[in-house]
Design brief:
- It holds the Pfam family Fer4_15.
- It is a single chain.
- With about 70 residues, the protein is α+β, with helices and mostly antiparallel strands.
- It has two helices and four strands; from the N terminus they run E-H-E-E-H-E.
- The chain has one domain: 2-Layer Sandwich (Alpha-Beta Plaits), CATH 3.30.70.20.
- Helices cover about 25% and strands about 20% of the residues.
Length: about 70
């Protein structure tokens, strides 16, 4: 699974970093960033939860094979 945060949509709510801090951080500028683009299978459920919890729907992901 690969993930990224849409910089134009993110408003820095921080839900993603709270749910999955091994993948998402809040930058000094106050917005979310994926610090890993390729997500290990152990973290996939947390990334999906973070994406579903994002108020701005700024987290996007796709299967690495697709």
């Amino acid at each position: 699974m690969r993930v990224f945060v849409d910089d134009d949509a993110c408003r820095g709510h921080g839900v993603c970093a709270a749910v999955c801090s091994s993948v998402f951080v809040i930058t000094d500028g106050g917005y979310a960033e994926a610090i890993r683009s390729e997500i290990p299978s152990d973290d996939e459920a947390f990334v999906l939860e973070a994406a579903e919890g994002c108020p701005e729907r700024a987290i996007h992901f796709h299967d690495s094979e697709g």
